[in-house]
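Form 7-S
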Amino acid sequence: MGGRGECSQTFLPATLDFLGIPLTGSGVYGHALALDKSITKQILMSNGIPTPPSQVFHKPTEKLSSALKFPLIVKPVAEGSSRGIEKECVVVSKRELQVMVKQTIDKFNQPAIVERFIGGREFTVGIVGNLNPECFAILEINGVPSRMKDEKIFTGELKVKEGYITARTHIAKLSKEEAIKHRDLALKTYRALRCRDYARVDIIVDNTGAPWVIEINSMPGLFMDYSGYVASASKAGLSYPQLINKILDSAIERYPLL
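Output:
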């Protein structure tokens, strides 16, 4: 879709828009906002949507904000599909932080974002639509053990190897009130980031029961028997053709002359 980093999800939409070719999914603006985790967080916070506090590092020797306390997690600031997420990303000391920040900057050729590590239950939910977007089934993901006792993490390696179709991913067991709360947060995030047609939102609920929006994927995978977005729709009772038609219907609404 245009390589990695800040332009990876905007190149093709920008090209199609320039050529006047209709497309499904978010536009350049929505993809740009959603892919940059730092900008995403600023928008979420300005809309009253809970998200872990963070700091962007351009070099490993920068001073850590007093607002951030260990444990922390280090990620590339503008990558999707859990790229760069591994067990070692969770750090518990200044030395570990500097090593991981340097490794992330060098590997991905972009700044690193450091955020408070939120332990707890991890969920993902697919969304479709524009004027009246709807959520599919809320899925719970059981990752692999992290460096923190009793806490798990969904690594990039695990996502590539297993996707969202193994026993690790299942329909979340939530109360009616919890499900409503999570869907509301997902939809608020979807609207705040100016997404269109379809997207997927990741949420972690900490050990006190407080939900935190981790990120939004404005271009989630649509691979059958693999992708989280497809799994969310499938668990909601949609066949793959029905899902694709819903996405197409959402896009067609934006192109009334088609």
